[in-house]
């Protein structure tokens, strides 16, 4: 279980770590790992099994940067300038979580989740009527595909 599951450049890893930082910086390790697994789950899925690009992006970097998928990358989000300016020291824990997930060193605690939202907010429209497959830290995780 110690392999990189899909092509991942240093740039992809940096984007993934910044996404985990922006979405789960205050979380326990399990929360950071869960967000990283959600990213990996999306990157590994081929919606429709057609080999065509999926609506939520392709690959680690594409999944993270796809508009409106991870709020920390929206220019008006308060975390956007912080993730852009974050230095290696700030990203260290998030990088560790990303390495562990991409290397298959930790099992997926989300049950294959492809979506999540903070438990502190009302369920967004896409989660209406859906049951989370996991609640980890401050997030509710859903497998919608």
Automatic annotation (TrEMBL):
One Pfam family cited in the UniProt record for this chain: Hydrolase_2
| GO MF annotation, one | hydrolase activity
Gene3D superfamilies on file: 6.20.240.60, Cell wall hydrolase SleB, domain 1 (1.10.10.2520)
* Identification of the protein by name: Cell wall hydrolase SleB domain-containing protein
Per the database record, which ranges form the Cell wall hydrolase SleB domain? Answer: 26-142
From what organism does this protein derive? Hypericibacter terrae
Give the matching InterPro entries.
Cell_wall_hydrolase_SleB, SleB_dom1
Q: Which domain of life is it from?
A: Bacteria
């Amino acid at each position: 279980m110690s392999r990189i599951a899909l092509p991942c450049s240093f740039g992809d890893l940096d984007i993934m770590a910044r996404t985990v930082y922006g979405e789960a910086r205050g979380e326990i390790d399990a929360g950071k790992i869960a967000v990283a697994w959600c990213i990996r789950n999306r990157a590994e899925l081929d919606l429709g099994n057609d080999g065509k690009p999926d609506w939520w992006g392709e690959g680690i970097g594409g999944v993270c940067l796809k508009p409106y998928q991870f709020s920390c990358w929206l220019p008006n989000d308060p975390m956007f300038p912080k993730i852009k300016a974050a230095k290696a020291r700030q990203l260290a824990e998030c990088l560790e979580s990303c390495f562990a997930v991409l290397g298959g060193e930790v099992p997926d605690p989300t049950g294959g989740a492809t979506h999540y939202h903070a438990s502190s907010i009302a369920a967004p429209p896409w989660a209406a009527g859906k049951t989370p497959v996991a609640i980890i830290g401050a997030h509710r995780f859903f497998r919608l595909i």
